[in-house]
Specification:
The chain is of the alpha+beta class and 460 residues long. It is built from ten helices and 16 strands. Helix 5 crosses helix 8.
Amino acid sequence: MKLHELKAQLAELKAAGAALAEEVEEAGRDFTDPERVEAQRIEGEMNRLAKAIAESEAEDARVRADAALKQRLRKAPDAGPRAAPISLPVDPRTGRIDPRAHDVPLSLMLRQDPAMCGGFNDLAEFAMAVRAASDPRGGAVADPRLYAAPTGFHRETSSADGFMVPAAFRAEVWELVFNQTDVLGLVGAEPTSSNIVQLAADESTPWSTTGVQAYWAGEGVQLTSSRLETEGRQVRLHKLHAYVLATEELLSDAPRLNDRLTRQAAAALRYKASDAIVNGAGAGQPLGFLNSGALISVAKESGQVADTIVTANVLKVFARFLGAQTAMSGNGPFWLAHMSTVPHLGVLTIGDQPAWTSPATGLRGPVAGQMLGFPIVFSQHAAVVGDVGDLTLVDPGGYYAVTRASGIQFAESMHLFFDYDITAFRWTMRMGGTPFLEAAVSPANGSDTLSHFVTIAARA
């Protein structure tokens, strides 16, 4: 029987049951024995129809998914790009493209060597194949690429163990997360195979009275010794995840699914990881430099108007910056600023010269340029103008970030939300981080401390 006929019968039974109950209620009496038997018959028939409707809807959904999968499998691979005269790095041990060559686009690797991803063109195609193979109702066409050597995606004989994501797809997400001009990419995370890193920190300076020292000595006089002043610290890696739920309709649309599974999930992970480096509380996540003891907040000027930035603020921040004087800078110091600071930075002057310089384009080009020799990076991780962190001079070399060398782990399941026709996709990664300094350091001369992270105090 067709689905619409089943639904029509169910509606008729509901109406009959409602009419019977209304008749008894209006008469102000209990059900008679024949009426009770009829009510029980109606209830039983309604339950049977409801079950039949659910099974019919599930069968229709399975047929649609199978048809979509068969259509994709019938498509012949495009072999055109294989003949393109492109030179790619090859691993001499295997004779195949070296996946460690991060400067080679993943899409080009897939076209040149589809076997790297088991013949799948993208993560959406792989996810749809896994979904079909994991359907507990059975009847779906199993994609042979999931089982063909040498991919070995299927971990065990039991379907409950799932399928391994092709390594190239994991690398694609990792590249999207970390190879970006963002705080996370500027800091440069160190890989590790452990969940805890023991860090030996030495916060002594050449002019301090602790740590390695140099002394003048006369002829024949015993030398004065000194020793490293190190402090043991533990940097714990915390779990960061992106958990995506995809509906039946979304799974049938491969382009949208691929976008959801790669760009959007990667952007979310990148944002959270970068935000932790700046604003992390340190409990269950990395310690951000704005919440660390290493941060210096330069006081506002006397009588300064609320929610403003003046030239004196910028100069005093620069004067307290340690990053310009040490060799810790990796990607180089930069100003981390919120876009709301632009109207203030754009009119700052030092003497008769603009403090924010972009001489090549002036106001004709995009927002760019430098201030006191360091580039400005506008970011949503910065605070709004007037709050602590709206403009911060940062030395990324003064921050220690660490990630699990295994990269991002991916998993997929349709069993959790089976009755909702929803499939769950999950990425997890581990990351830890903390500033190298636990507190600002004293200078050789003067009393104003120095740090790799200097900002302006609140201007309320």
